[in-house]
Protein 1
Amino acid sequence: MPHKTAKNVKLWQDEEEKSKVEEAVEAMKKKKELLKEKAFQMECSPEEVEPIVTVAPAAAAAAKKTIWQRVKHEAVHYYNGFKLLYLEIKIAARLLWQVMNGKILSRRERRQFLRTAADIFRLVPFLVFLLIPFMEFMLPVAIKLFPNMLPSTFEDKSKKEENKKKQLKVKIQMAKFLQDTVEEMAVTAKQKKTQEVVSEFANFFEKIRTKGEQPSNEDILRFSKLFEDQITLDNMSRAQLKAINRLLTLPTIGTNNYLRFQLRMKLRQLRADDLLIQREGVDSLTEQELQSACQARGMRAIGVPAARLRSQLRQWLELHLDEQIPASLLLMSRALYLPENVSKVDQLKETLSQLPETLVEEAEIKICEVSGEKVDNKVRLDVLKKEEQMIAEEKEELLHEEEEKKKKIEAVAAEILEDKAPEIKPTAVEDISQEDWLSIKASLALASERDELEKIKEDRVEYQEELRELATEDEKHILEESLGSLRLGKKVDVMINKIEERLKLIEAEIDDQSTEPRLDADGDGKISLQEMISAVRRLKNAPSEAKCQRIAEMLDQDHDGTLDLDDVEMVVELLSMEDVDLTPEQIRDIVDLLAKESKVRKANEQPMNAKEGGESTQ
């Protein structure tokens, strides 16, 4: 019998792309479900339960402070606030300078850029009226001063047409970044809220770390959900990364960034597999499939009876999908090698007690953002400084790795020079670098500015729907969109309208003047391998034809000579963000993973479409 379907379970990257408003809506829904469950247990209404649930921590926190304590607290708060604003402006300016000089931001740097931009507009909403018009006005000047700001364009473009394309592309990227910033900005409380949720979180961790008092199972499960895979992976130490990679029989040699990338892909694969297994049912798996599934999740599999394998796999699915406990925490609990008689909840408790302080502070910020409570500026400052430290460490690792590569190349060259015996050596196979993936991304993107603009418009529509859903769920009208987010969103809408007008003019000119073949000219969503190679080869400083051929063959999983444009864009988008060296087998695994996620997404959409169709016929 198939396992019950978990509620609101999304694929890994869909969870990663959630806006702060969507997270607030989900938190509100979960709170309502909790109140209903407690009301059912206590045989009363949810309205009668809510004061019991929320007032207790608030009462403890409401100890009256003296005037001096209040003055001192406010002074420290504003001092940390100014320090935070100064540091964020400094970081945002540095990262913006990198972008304008054509440098590629790492995943961590891009997240830091989004966070600082969102926080600057949150702290000083008036800046929206100054910065955005100034940026739009200075755009033509910036393109002339910083010619490397965009990837190299097609060689056969005229200078005038190339300049138009560049300006349009930068405007689209600016609109996309600003919309991402809007989604990164948290909701705010309409009235000053007591810090009850933060107090609960702090009390919970005090219980865990002092070990003087046992927290409830309900609290352990509730607070475990805050440590999402993305922030947990980004804050793991090297020892923890190696332990989990070893548990999953993945390579443990490489930079921290490479180990995190491996785990990120593995967690995406596990999420997609879990959703497929849940849909088909654990009982449908053979014993060999059960062993493989359990082994992939760090569980004992060899020499274990089939009934036990099914039991532990069901338990994993229940925690991961039904309770929505992040897979990274579940794997960390297994990497501790605790005795088997320890319950899963106690394993989670032990795992939480060993999390680094920065990760706990990240979770504290998250819980404040979704509940509309104020985040302590000192906590934000500490997290920002730690993130800057980790960015510096990643850059140092990459530089060290580049130096090691150069030494190996020089050593091989020296051996060839010393060896006087005639020997025919095979031609060296060129590594596929991040720059190569960026070239492919550029060749695809330059042909689809319209698609990029439509995606931004869709994001705006989705965001407005999320705000309406928040207003519906928030019956007491506690939360609202922040002032900075509201003003920035209006500016994005104006930018979209301007880009739309400009794009129509450029599209008309291209239709009248351009003679070059267009990518996916028939609009069926598929391109041939030769079409993709030709598009990439038209770029300045394009990868070699042999390298383009290898990349195209890797992407063509079914070897039919055609590529699905949407699938190619997803793979290229993912790999162009990661500065890691991957083997052809690893790239093929990533293509397989994205195909599996696409299959899960389509399977999830079918019941929804059937339900909508049934409702319309009634």
Note: The radius of gyration is 27 Å.
Protein 2
Amino acid sequence: MNPLVVAASLAAAVLAGVPKVEKSPPRPSHPSFSLGLGRPAGPRGHAFSPGEIDYAERGPIAPKSATQPNPPEADGDLGRIAVVYLGGAQVIRLNVALTHAGRSVSAAWYDYLRVLFAYFDRDRDGVLNAYETEQCYSAVGMRALFYGNYYTPASGPAPDFRAMDTDGDRKISPAEFVAYFAEMSDSLFRERRAQTTADDGTTENLIVRLDADKDGKLSKAELTAAPKLLFALDTDEDETVSLSEVFAALPRRKSNAAGAEMMNSNMMGMKGNAAATAVLPAAGDLFLYPGRALRGEVVPALIAKYDRNKNGKLEADESPFDGAATKRLDRDGNAVLDDSELHAWTRETAGVELLVDVGVTPESGGVTVVGDLPAGAVLRRESKRRAVLRFGSQSVELSLFVPDAKQSKSVYDGLIASVFGAKKHIDEQDLGGISNQFIRSIFDSADVNADGRLIRAELVNYFDMQRRTMDLGFALSASVNRPTLFQVLDDDHDGKLSLRELRTAWERLSLLEAPGATTVSAGILRPVVFLQASPGPAFNGARLPLSDDFTQQTAMQPAAPKPGPIWFSRMDRNSDGDVSRGEFLGSAAQFAVIDTDKDDLISLAEAEAHDRKLRPKPPQR
């Protein structure tokens, strides 16, 4: 079941006062209260019963207003990103808006806070006492969850009870709880910039293979012959051609010197067709801002980019806007756009919005366009989760990447199974050894009825709440790159060329040339703005279709079993062969013990060496 649905069901059960999970009997060593829950042992026991909070060690309570704060209004711009690209002859401006199963990020955020409150309101009295507040996520920990990382109480200090208790009544109301965490909404969005990359020779490789007459261009006949020529390279016989297969079969460059020389001369200064350039697209031409509004820094960049006569203004023949927009912005009618008129443009609302919906399941959701497209713009929906907007010769591609929730759930399931085994419940005495320290660190937070025991349902519900928190965060990965010919041919961006993609090559590529063109040149490979939206759990693994090592190719390959101890392979979430401090689920002291070379990384060798120390030695014969 989807974590969002599970968490919502859990919250409904909590609010209704009807437990959905089996309750372990209270420990007899602790007295029962009228609430039906045992007092926790240890120093937190005094705080569990409402009204029994001792402030003596913290000093007197400062006078506060007796009026409870109202929940803040939902921010309508939460989940929206303004995008501006200045890379071509025409300025591209649009908004990207993220929704969760058709609901705005704002609505999902405030609903989540209410559900989170209900989850930590363990005695179901409608307020949080000091003990319950202590179990809540810290600010640092909540940000980590937004970005798809696990949470432990060691992630940061617990919420400040006194700061949250704004009316000083020693109880936290739902309104106070929402107000305290409201500012965390600023951390929901994270921008990721991918490095602008140069063509690694892929385009040259393909054209040399397909260009029968060696004129540096591809005709319809030459592209029609592409399936036969390229499928001969399919060494793994999977009926597709990967980039590695293309490069593996490439003759040494010495034997292809004439073709390479011809390609260099033709590709750097194309004769006929669209002009090509070896200059990489500038990443600084792409601006992303949370919300709808642009910032003033766009204006100087706009003038620097298009002001050819360097007079600090944009003449009519320099304007990157269409005729109607230029006339509208030219308020004084002098046929010149000055600084103030361009700043007025930044305060306008973009006419087109790309709506990205993260569905309830990985299979649902998608990309749609809201609003009127600018004059001359063309929309192409390449799949439910991928759309391309063409503005003349420029393109913006927006895609949605949602990880399979089953993968993260399988990690949780495996962890729970390894901890419980055949037991119906566990206590802290069952959690010895370094592999159980993560469960030990969250024991109190997951122990809903505070009886000092954990049953499976309590741990499952705790992880489901973490998952719901992860699902709230989102990232927008952005890059501006000139695609290679392989990437243009690879229509579904799976890192392989299928028979259908090669058969339709001329039909698709000829559309990128001027009408009536009889050949296709490298000039069609113009810079493209790639935007990929992804929820928080996907951030660390979000991938753009253009990257240094063509990750789309490797992403589809089955993962090989990871070497080393189980705890090491599970903590190495980015599969880079090391466990960093952020990935390590134990304490800082435990990390320091294992990290013997003190390089702030636990290597495979260090993990295996530490694991050997913990294993019991075989008995001496």
Note: The first strand starts at residue 80 and ends at 85.
Protein 3
Amino acid sequence: MFTHRSQLEHKAVGYAVAWKSGQTWEGIKTHMGFNQEAFDAECAALAYALQMAVKSDPVPDHITIFTDAQAAMRRMASYEPGLGQKYTLEARKHITMLRRMVSDITIEIRWCPAHEDVKGNEKADEWAKLAADEPDTLGVECYTQRAGDTPRHAISMTSRTQSED
């Protein structure tokens, strides 16, 4: 999985989580409004990626999440109060649940370079910008993109309800 956040000039913030399923890129994007920071969005994206793993059936025994935000990675390892704490606590809750579900699970949060043509990172970046700029009425949308599709025609969105989360 790849996570990314975006904060636009008018201060709208959003994040996306993207993953490859066969030849298709799938993901979720979330608009967070105008009163959050990009750092919060990246921490929220990491927490959401872990939540998705908890809800997987079956739960995988190895989870790797890539992010280009080293500060968010450091925050996930910190027990100190501060920025992004809400999302760090959520992430830890999900990690604890995963370890209870699969005792020998491997969970990695790894750094990947930004804007270096890492396909998953670029897809998450593209969708995070859409999340910040074009929220739906619920704030959350799911979509897929098949390999070879152009972004303009590739995104089919289905609004999710709160009960699906």
Note: The chain is about 35% helix and 30% strand.
Protein 4
Amino acid sequence: MHLIMGCPMFALTLIRISKAVALDRVGEKPCHKSEFEQAHRGKIVPAAVGRGFGFMKKVMRATRWLALSFSLVAAAVLGDSPENKQALATTPAALVEMLTDAAFLPPEQYLEKIEAARQQHSAAIGLTQLPQYLDADKDPRASIKARELSDYSQTLVDIAQRSRDEGEILWGRIQGTVYERQTLEWIYRELQSFGLEDVHYDPFPSQYPQWRPTTCALSVRSAPTFEAGQTYSFKDPITAFVSATTPIGGIEAQMVYVGDGTAAELQGRDLTGKILLLRGRTEPSALLNTARTAYSRLATGNYGMPAGVVVWWDVPNAKQVAGRVGAPGGGDSIGEALPWTTIGNDAGLYLRKLLDRVTPEQPVVVRLEVQGQMESGEQRMSGNTYAMLPGQSGDYIVIPTHVDGYFYGVHDNGASVALNLALARYYAQIPISERQHGLIFLFQGDHEVPGVGGTLPFIAKYQKLMEQNLLLVLRPEHLGMNRPMDEGLLVAKSNIADPLMLLVTNRSPLLIDLFKRAASRYGIAMGDLVYIDPAADEAAFHPPYNDLNAISSGWIQTGKFYHSTFDFDSGGVDFDQIEKLARAHAFIIDELGQVAKADLHRGGRPVPEKSIYQSDLLKILMGNN
């Protein structure tokens, strides 16, 4: 209604002003300076001046009409429009009030509520993974199937779950434990079952002391909204790497939230004696997370010495994450500065919401207990299992995949172990007359701490062979993680995998082109770069460990879900993707049969002298935190 009235009034007002101006000009006469002077003295008001005052009155009346018409139009647009039927709230206070308790739930109830809410707004449609571009009916590697790969992986998962069922706090196929050895023994039997003859299992003591936690406990002893005597114990805290320990029974202290633990967030605070909730952001992954920098900043004591730290990971749909707080490249001993543990995203949300409600009279008090010890030598026996399949040239392609891993260990590294087993089964059926180069299917233990493990004793045993007959190291790792669709409100699997990074240590043009062709044929998502730093088990083939003039290559993807329970609990690794990747690796191996070592070195460049873990690039990344 206001809009209907306002617009004509606005037009009428403009007409009135125009008319007043026109009339005033018609009756206009010259006005002499002396008349103005007299008028100013109050002696006379000449006609011209009177006309001027009359004109001004008309304009003022018209202006009042103009203001009224503007207000009517504004009311129509802003105040009297149809009700917005989708607005969650229309004032800041209303929005804050309605959200205060909407998500204030313990982790288990929170998960149930959000899943039920999502089901009201969406449903799965049974999407399958994007297929390979090469016609499967014409693919000579089509006998490598997703089901075979999934079955291998499930056996690895079963071993990992056995460790949890038998009471291990840090569970999985942990290096140097009986569960890693069970994995190596099972792989040994599988390789023999493929008809491979030159199969080995070489046990050796773990090369570095290993942390074994015996207690990881976190509970809320009192908090706002809690009744007298009410407590809450978190189910899945985990300290996956070495930590300072607490007294038996734990330490009890007030908890405070320090955000990301940046210097700006800590400025002017006294954290003495408090247990800190620290947000750990997996940017880009739990491998290079923000807590690495923040924990050391807190442990310096520059803001008062805390009693302990609880890292709250930001990984969705993962109850546990095996993330580090020490320096990259093996600097885990930094974690001995303060007792620390970690919790998952949902658990941390609940804890932070309790802290949102703190008053001076009602703090959040928690109890933290971390117990464990370092083990080495005979306490931690690891090993390697491998099969050697000769070729016509006498040179070998080594395919290393580490078997140890945290929790289910599908992404790191069970899916790649499955891929390597499938390759071993596939090539065991191919006669030497059709196999130009030899293959070594290496399943090494002792990887996770510090990251270069079983390849070292393997090279020591076969030093001469590696010096004279190593064609290439082809290392698959962290493969097959699905790229989730995550819109916050709605989350689902997608039909693509996370893009892979390509390693070619000498930037061989031939190798780079070969991986690109494999990706094109088999629909492999990969980033548009090649990196040149050997940083995992393949590092053993290069200085400073060994100088073999080696070339290492392979796909890898670390990402947000690295070292977490997401890979199995949420079906994060897709074996249709692993099928494509296994066939792509077989394609690469077959194509390498047409080249010699000199071809792979042609046009290459040397490996950087400084490790990526000591590089300026890493310092810049961690310096942002």
Note: The chain has a mean pLDDT of 88.
